[in-house]
């Protein structure tokens, strides 16, 4: 799927055929063979994980939200770990704009707030 809201901005959502995992503190937080990769102009690629493949017991809803003119409003989640809480480590577009509706019910993780996001064959 490609979103082209203006000539200078593009979003592609690609079905990822690889195994993708989020690991933090030695614990696997997410592990999927059904990720979506969102490729957006001016941003690094982002892996989106189906909620069924995320350890949701480790996530706690944040009060933070942030609007995106291309995707809608992001809702954030804290990651609960043995060492404490990692603030706003994940986000989701729970009511995404129509053009990116395929990321609904998926979660993405902030690469700078978790130890690793791995993609393997």
Structure notes:
- By secondary structure, the chain is an all-beta fold.
- The chain has strands at residues 2-6, 9-15, 19-24, 27-32, 36-40, 46-50, 59-68, 72-81, 84-92, 106-109, 116-120.
- It has a single domain (2-119), classed as Metal Binding Protein, Guanine Nucleotide Exchange Factor, Chain A (Beta Complex), CATH 2.170.150.40.
- The chain has an eight-stranded antiparallel sheet, with no helix packed on it.
- It starts with a strand and ends with a strand.
Shape: globular
Rounded mean pLDDT score: 94
CATH class: Mainly Beta
Q: State the end-to-end distance.
A: 23 Å
Question: What structural class results from the helix and strand content?
Answer: mainly beta
Please tell me the CATH architecture by its name: Beta Complex
Looking at this protein, list some descriptive labels.
three-stranded antiparallel beta sheet; single chain; DUF427_sf; 121 residues; DUF427 domain-containing protein; eight-stranded antiparallel beta sheet; Metal Binding Protein, Guanine Nucleotide Exchange Factor, Chain A; DUF427
Please describe the topology of this protein.
Blueprint: E1 2-6, E2 9-15, E3 19-24, E4 27-32, E5 36-40, E6 46-50, E7 59-68, E8 72-81, E9 84-92, E10 106-109, E11 116-120
Antiparallel strand pairs: 1-2, 2-5, 3-4, 3-11, 5-6, 6-10, 7-8, 8-9, 9-10
